[in-house]
Every structure is written in C-alpha cells, then in structure tokens.
Amino acid sequence: MNCPLHVKDGAEILLDYCSQRMDPDRAAAFRLHVADCVDCKQVVEAQASVWDALDAYEAVPVSRDFDRKLWARIDAEDSQSWFQRTWTRVVGGPAIGWSTYLFNWKPMLVAATACAAIAGVMLVSVPGQHGMDPVADPQNQKLMERVESALDDIDMLNQVGVIETAHQGPI
Amino acid sequence: MEAVGALERDAELMLRVRAGDTASFAKLLEKHRGPVVHFLYRMVQNQPVAEELAQEVFLRVYRSRENYEPTAKFTTWLFRIATHLALNQIRDRKHERNQENLDEETSEGMTRQVADRGPNVEQSMVRDARLNEVRKAISALPDKQRAAVMMHKYEELEYSQIANSLGCSESAVKSLLFRAYETLRGRLAHLA
After folding, report:
1. What count of other Cβ atoms lies within 10 Å of the Cβ of residue B88?
2. Residue spans per domain, chain B
3. Helices H, strands E: what count in chain B?
4. For B2-191, CATH number?
C-alpha cells in the first residue's frame, strides 16, 4: 500500500480511517501499513488523541422550554397578517444580526425590481384618462379640430395680408 | 440500511408536515432538536444564542413546509440552514467586537458543562482545564473549518452533506477537514 501521506488523495484515507468510516477490508490493510510506517503511525496516534479530546466536549442539555418557545413563535407568526409574515421573513427575527439582514436584502432587491418593472409597464401601457386612446377621445378631437381651424384662418388671413407679425412679415 | 431508513422517515415526516400534520413536525423536532442545538452551541459557544438560532432553524423549516421537496436529505437541509445562521452570527460578533473570553463564560454555560462525574475536585479541575483547551482550539479554527469539523465529528455527516451545507465541493470539504484536524493535532496533542 502506498503511504497516504505521499499520495494525492491520501488525506481522505487518513480521515476515513481516523473517524472509523473506512470499510473493514480497507481498514485492515491500512492497519498493516501503519504498523510499518512511522509517519502514518504518528498521525494516527495524534488524531486519536484529538478524537478523545473532542469527545470530552460534551453536549449541553437543551432548555426544557425550547419546544414551548418555538411553538409560541410559530403560533405568533401564523396569527400575523400576510404582510407582517412577509416582512418578518425579509427582515428577520430578533436573533438575526446585521449580516443576516444583509443576507436577506436579496429578496428585497428582487421585490423592489419587480415593483419597478410593473410600474414601468403600467406607465408605458396605461391608456388615457377615460381608458381610451387620447387621439380617439372626442373632446380631444374637437379641440384638435378647433386648433386646425384656427391655424387655417390664420393662414388665410396671412395670405390676404391682414395679419402682421412683430417681425413685420407674414407668419 | 438502518440509516437509510431513518433518512427516509425524515423525508416522510416532512412530507406529512407539508400536508398540514403538525404532529409530524413535533417528531422531527424531537429527533433533531438536540443535534442542531449542540452543533450551534459548539459553533457560537453560547448556549442561549445557540438555542435562539436553533429555534430560527426550525422556524425556517416550518415556514418552508409548503414548498418542501425531498430532493436532498433532510439533515443536509437542516444543517445547511444551521451553518448559515451560525456563520452569520459569528461574523456579527466579530464585527461587534464581542469576542467572548472563555475564562469569563456565563455561569449558566459553565454549570451545564461541568458534569458531576466524580467526587475528586482535582479531577474536575483537570477535566475543566482540558475542556477549555478543546474549546479554545475549536474556537481558534477558521469558521468554515470549524463548521466542517463539527458536522464531521459530532453529527457524522457525509462529505457530500457537509459540502452541501457549506456550499463547496467534496474535495474542498476534505481539504478543510484535513487542515482543521492537522491544526487540532498541533494544539491538542499535549492532552494525550
């Protein structure tokens, strides 16, 4: 067996063996290697010490009211309005620090972009005041006709030399 | 086989939660509450904060129930959420310059950690000193290495699960673990 310390994926072999995740046949073969390899033996023994030390880092019992508090939060959230729930999900709860707030800015940005896009589409496509094409609006049509008529009158009067502009010439 | 069955049960329970069965959520909570709190405690080294974060983990699982799809193992998903919250909490604490002095651990935390194993005071003191060495060594690890070690050693997650939780490749996880354990060997070898 090639020494794991000197092969490309050797770290995985050592990891698996030291954490007892290696299948029995491979483990037996590796044990034979360790018996002859000073370097590997040193690593395996040191890792065993680390493992024992980490075992001493015992788990702390969970509080008795953990579940009660969690269900209270769930019930409180369920009784919120849709808006309040969405706001809570975007901004985060009391345990969430500023970096999680920043982590949550992405959905806010998406929501803002979506709102801006919707607003833009509405502005572009929104019809006239009464839901009709401005050009087709009867009131606007009458106004346009009056303007055209007035321009025609001015043109006619200009042709007959009645109107004088400030520049002493026809319009 | 037993492990596979357990994983399938988790997915089955979560699908029932999706269907509105809160009793199934209670079963998942019962099963995973401890490991999640313990993982978070070892990451943030503060019991009340760890429990607060653990509640947030389960709250997020509950919120996501309607969209749940068993595409990944339940524990992978659970610890991905837990890892994100833990890493964010650690970053927040660094920014607030609120590094805890391990010698000034809360009385609640110390009380809970000192198990009444034997009558000998000296043994207890030696044990506490050893425990502090371990906690300092773990605390000194870079955040992702710490998270990888916690998931590998205490939760016995597979490399693929750890990779999923940390958002990196399996080979990156193995590299993280190898470097982390190498560092720990250097710091804890004298405890042998």
Report:
1. 20
2. 2-191
3. 9, 0
4. 1.10.1740.10
Model pLDDT for residues B52-94, shown as the tens digit of each residue: 999 999 999 999 999 999 988 999 999 999 999 999 999 888 7
Tokens of B140: 């000194």
How far is Cα B19 from Cα B29, in angstroms, rounded to an integer? 17
Token pair for B95? 């920014």
Query: Which amino acid is it at B145?
Result: Q
B153 close contact with A: CB closer than 8 A: yes
From B131's Cα to the closest Cα of chain A, the distance in A is 6
Domain extent, residue A103, equals 75-125
Span B132-173, pLDDT tens digits = 889 999 999 999 999 999 999 999 999 999 999 999 999 899
Maximal CA-CA distance, chain A = 121
Look at residue A1 and give its three-state secondary structure: coil
Predicted structure pTM score:
0.67
Domain membership of residue A62 (yes or no) is no
- Torsion of the alpha carbons at B161, B163, B164 and B169, rounded to the nearest 10: -130
Q: Clarify whether residues A48 and A8 are in a common domain.
A: yes
Q: Which helix (H) or strand (E) holds B17?
A: helix B2-18
**A47:B133 CB<8 A:** no
Nearest neighbour of A49 by CB, restricted to B37, B152, B189: B189
Q: Is residue A66 part of a domain?
A: no
Is B188 touching A (CB cutoff 8 A)? yes
Residues in chain B: 192
ipTM score here? 0.78
Residue of A nearest to B60 (CA): A89
